[in-house]
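Lab notebook, bench 4. Still working through the backlog of constructs that have no structural model yet. Next entry is a single chain of 415 residues. Request: give me the structure tokens for it.
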Amino acid sequence: MKQFLIFLAILMAIPTVAQQRISLTECYQLVNDHYPLAKQKDLLEAQSTLESEAVSTSQLPQVAFDAYATYLSDVIEFPLAMSGIEPLNNDQYRATVSVNQLIYNGGATGASLDLKSAQLKAKQKEVEVSLYQLKKQINQVYFSVLLAQESEALLSAKEKQLRAKLKEVQSGIKYGVLLPASDKVLEAELLKIGQQFQEIESDKKALVETLSSLIGKPLTAETVFERPFVQTDLQTDVNRPELEWFELKKEEIEGSEHVLSKQNAPKLLGFATGGYGNPGLNMLDNSFQGFYTVGVKLNWKVFDWNANKKQREALAINKDIITKESEAFRLNTNIELNRQQREIEKIEGFIASDQEIIRLRKEVLQSADSQLKNGVITASAYITELTNLYEDENTLIRHKIQLELAKANYNVIKG
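Model written out:
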């Protein structure tokens, strides 16, 4: 009984594996999560954290160690009246430890940290822009797989119809109603259909492998690709991530301007130095001594020949350049949306005429079917009409898939 239950569980699991399904929305999400470029967002954040920590260290005490030994070719000599003073040694030694503590720098550290944050946001948005641009590639591959899937189903229907017709023709030959070679024409056509199946399967396999690589998920030829119901709002309100990226680049420039405005601010530091050397601070004591100094230091660049001002003016020009790029992007996107809308309208017109053509083809094929049964036309003539109907039905399917692709691309262009 236990073995039977295990066998039953395996049988129930097989259809689940065979019926793997995937949707266009899922492909969008997977490419955002698994495409190699997506990993850059975490790397950029880690990089920015390290850089910000490095900037913040300017507010911590800065410790330095110095040591030297020198030999002087000449030293200070004292007059005879002061002959009781021991002359200085020609060899001198000193080791010091210095500590500098930033007290005030006009907010330059905070401005630098704000700039790092703005740079991180702009870089991460740039990654999003690159990932978003993959959506068109996803659309093209996904709908190509859908077309192969639909073409395969249509070809199966044609094959089924031909096999049924072959049985009728063979029966007609048996009873002398049709010419003996009539079934050979149908058999040859069935062999051609087998070749078409192979071609579709090969193309579909290549497309599925491409999509699998893009989204980072294993897919097979048996995977069912769900046909999306694409809705489009035919308005030109663009909401692309590129527009957000342009704004973040402006904020980054503003952060750079803020940093520059703090560069010439006065900087106040406290310092302390302790050391041991010969001589020490008392130059008249020719022996090893310990010593220390403490104090504050003010550093203020009063005049820089307008270098800082010119740098800020250059940044302002760069901001204007980005504004123009944003305007050009909006203009080009609206042009592309308009062109895509015309494409949608054109394909909708094709679909309406395709349906009428198919209706007429079915009437012709129905007549040809009756004529073949009565031996009025040959099997070749019947196959011609069947092939015409198949090709027109295939054209209709292709146009329907193209319409969905055009709508999906419209949504991607619009954002």
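Notes after review: The chain is about 65% helix and 10% strand. The longest strand covers residues 91-104. Flag for follow-up if needed.
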